[in-house]
Amino acid sequence: MAIEIERKFLVTGSGWREAAERSEAMAQGYLNQVDKLAGGDLASVRVRLEGPRAALNIKSCEAGRSRQEFEYPLPVDDARALLALCTGGKVQKQRHYVRHGAHLWEVDEFEGDNAGLVVAEIELGGVDEEFQRPDWLGAEVTDFHRYYNIALSKRPFTAWSDAERQGPEEDGDAR
Predict the structure, then answer these.
(1) 30 carries an active-site annotation
(2) What separation in angstroms does the CA of 142 have from each of 4, 9, 54, 74, 86?
(3) Would the pTM of this model clear 0.70, i.e. be above it?
(4) Over residues 119-136, mean pLDDT
């Protein structure tokens, strides 16, 4: 069984841009009913186009820093056909790969209905693994559901209130 241990942060400033090793356009959508996730679905089923590659991804919906994750390569034409079947909106972004310290960060610069949101993710070997925080790293949003791609497909950043756009709140959105 594959376990993903990931932490998610807001990005402040553009200091990460100079360190980006490469960037890729991404488009993704969800095959299961995104409305139902809060109501008991145990996993999300996502199709993603990432540069010249495509994948089907199944990720458990449990809260916290670690989740079960399974990913399978798909032919690009199949992924395009599956994207047409997705529920909710599509999430489009540029993913930038930025090395800092011993880790490779994924900085997602969202487009379309999520334009203006920039989030950095780091995958770790353990839930308590230490890592160097780059200067451009803002507040941690790992435990705030609205920052997850599946939530952004249903309620995009452009629909958020001004208060929500300011960052995570202590009381409103924890998973």
Answers:
(1) yes
(2) 13, 7, 25, 28, 25
(3) yes
(4) 95
